[in-house]
Amino acid sequence: MADEHTLAHLFRAQPQAVGRSPNEAWSPQRFRLSPAPLARILDEGDMIETGDRSFHVIHLPGHSPGSIGLLDERNGDLLAGDAIYRGRLIDDLPGSDALAYRQTMQRLLQIEFSRAFCGHGETIDQIELRAIARTYLDSAG
């Protein structure tokens, strides 16, 4: 995958982005990720069945275009990805959309769940997620 389709170039420019090399021959300049083959494009409301779990696809754009979350209503789990996490929510990356991010925060205030697995940091509960969303909406508004 070409760097222009990722943010890899930003991480290569930050020596602290990788704490230590996985082996002596590893080089961040030569590192490449091979994309998994596309099986299908997911859309709002689609279901993903894993055998023992079912996830509803929820469109959560703003941080990055096309971001999704996965909601397991039976277990109360929300896989939120980079849509929300502790700390300053980033809405100024290439491809970010602050207006769409505000709509995502509004949406997250309405979703019922027990715990959210975020793309960064620890698992959070619904109360903390809603506090983060409200803080973003208050500061961005």
- Give the assembly state of these chains: single chain
CATH architecture: 4-Layer Sandwich
Strand order of the largest sheet: 1-2-3-4-5-6
Based on secondary structure, the structural category is alpha+beta
The CATH superfamily is identified as Ribonuclease Z/Hydroxyacylglutathione hydrolase-like
Q: Assign a percent range to the helix content.
A: 10-25%
What proportion of the residues form beta strands (DSSP E)? Answer: 15-25%
The total number of structural domains is 1
Give the class-level CATH name: Alpha Beta
User: What is the overall shape?
Assistant: globular
The main pleated sheet reads as: 6 strands, mixed
Tell me how many strands there are.
6
- Which fold name is given in CATH as the topology? Metallo-beta-lactamase, Chain A
The helix/strand series, from N terminus to C terminus, equals HEEEEHEEH
Give the distance, in angstroms, between the N- and C-terminal Cα atoms: 36 Å
Mean pLDDT: 87
SS summary, helix count: 3
- Rg estimate, integer Å: 17 Å
Poorly predicted regions are none
Family: Belongs to the metallo-beta-lactamase superfamily. Class-B beta-lactamase family.
Domain Metallo-beta-lactamase: 30-120
InterPro entries: Metallo-B-lactamas, NDM-1-like, RibonucZ/Hydroxyglut_hydro
Protein name: MBL fold metallo-hydrolase
Describe the structure.
Belongs to the metallo-beta-lactamase superfamily. Class-B beta-lactamase family. This is MBL fold metallo-hydrolase. With 141 residues, this protein is an alpha+beta fold. The chain has one domain: Metallo-beta-lactamase, Chain A (4-Layer Sandwich), CATH 3.60.15. It has a six-stranded mixed β-sheet with strand order 1-2-3-4-5-6. Helix 2 runs antiparallel to helix 3. The longest helix has 15 residues. The relative contact order is 0.13.
